């Protein structure tokens, strides 16, 4: 495994992180989830990402239980706050009340004394960003969280927040967690530039486009019966990629990967890690073997010629935007 600093902070995270969205506490049995977590740690992954909203807290519980056998200082555990955790008007968002209460709830579910990285799961238009940042800063000062980050914030939102944090001398935001893969590349337009200027690193999710960038889905072919796309509980995102132009490009990428002695998933991850502003790519896994395959991406170096050929393959879908 290789490690990078998370933004301009001194925190070192594995280039591949293990996430729990749509898997742990839901589609993957707890024992299998624990096997995946243990395999990830064995392979050098130190970065584990979850969120309070994943299955109403169950994903945090599964992750926390599986990590109990390891030295806490060897782990970087990230979770999030924003989405509803109850029916009440204050059971959601980024108000001081919700952030403080949900931090305590996440700590309890994880069975930990502190959270390494606490992230705002989305931007809250109904709460002053100053209130959110001051609440996060208080949690850092209390030792309940070590660092704070955001997820899927726009370049303008990041700029506004970092400007306030600097003005008020608050602990800085160090990360943004956006979707980013060969098909969805919106962060290349502004987010990466603004983040880089403000010491924020990207922790990207869906680097394999929910499995589309593994090559298992073929153009003009039926969806494999045991795949995520065939599962009604996990297919709401992946189905948005099922455009013939996308699947045709993916088939060409698969051929390119095979010609260069690698799996398409490894190529897709190596392509993401070519970005210096990317600190880590979050993979999901329902089997330990998937993790073993994916971590090999950190040793793949893509040449300029290879990157140029990849861009040629992706050219027909550069303007594709999944409908969600």
UniProtKB/TrEMBL annotation:
Keyword Oxidoreductase annotated: yes
Single Gene Ontology MF annotation: oxidoreductase activity
Matches recorded under InterPro entries: K_chnl_volt-dep_bsu_KCNAB-rel, NAD(P)_OxRdtase_dom_sf, NADP_OxRdtase_dom
Start and end residues of each NADP-dependent oxidoreductase domain: 15-314
Pfam families (UniProt xref): Aldo_ket_red (PF00248)
GO CC terms, sorted: cytosol
Alphabetic keyword roster: NADP, Oxidoreductase
Top-level taxon in the UniProt lineage: Bacteria
Gene3D superfamilies per the UniProt record, alphabetical: NADP-dependent oxidoreductase domain
Family: Belongs to the shaker potassium channel beta subunit family.
UniProt name for this protein: Aldo/keto reductase
Species in which this protein is naturally found: Gracilibacillus oryzae
């Amino acid at each position: 495994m290789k490690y990078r600093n998370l933004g301009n902070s001194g925190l070192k995270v594995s280039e591949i992180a293990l996430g729990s969205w749509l898997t742990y506490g839901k589609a993957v049995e707890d024992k299998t989830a624990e096997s995946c977590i243990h395999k990830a740690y064995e392979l050098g992954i130190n970065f584990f990402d979850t969120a309070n909203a994943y299955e109403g807290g169950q994903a945090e519980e599964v992750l926390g239980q599986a990590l109990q056998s390891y030295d806490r200082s060897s782990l970087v555990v990230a979770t999030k706050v924003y989405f509803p955790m109850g029916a009440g008007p204050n059971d959601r968002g980024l108000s001081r009340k919700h952030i403080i209460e949900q931090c305590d709830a996440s700590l309890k579910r994880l069975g930990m004394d502190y959270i390494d990285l606490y992230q705002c799961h989305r931007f809250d238009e109904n709460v002053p960003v100053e209130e959110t940042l001051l609440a996060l800063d208080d949690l850092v000062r209390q030792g309940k969280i070590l660092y704070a980050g955001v997820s899927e914030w726009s370049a303008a939102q990041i700029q506004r927040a970092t400007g306030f944090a600097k003005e008020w001398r608050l602990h800085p935001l160090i990360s943004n967690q956006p979707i980013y893969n060969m098909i969805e590349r919106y962060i290349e337009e502004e987010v990466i530039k603004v983040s880089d200027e403000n010491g924020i690193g990207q922790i990207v999710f869906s680097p394999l486009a929910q499995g589309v960038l593994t090559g298992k889905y073929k153009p003009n072919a039926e969806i494999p019966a045991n795949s995520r796309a065939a599962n009604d509980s996990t297919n709401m995102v992946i189905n948005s990629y099922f455009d013939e132009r996308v699947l045709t490009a993916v088939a060409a990428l698969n051929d390119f990967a095979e010609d260069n002695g690698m799996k398409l998933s490894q190529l897709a991850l190596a392509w993401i890690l070519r970005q210096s502003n990317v600190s880590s790519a979050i993979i999901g896994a329902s089997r330990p073997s998937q993790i073993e395959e994916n971590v090999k991406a950190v040793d793949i170096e893509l040449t300029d010629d290879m990157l140029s050929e990849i861009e040629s393959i992706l050219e027909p879908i550069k303007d594709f935007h999944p409908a969600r």
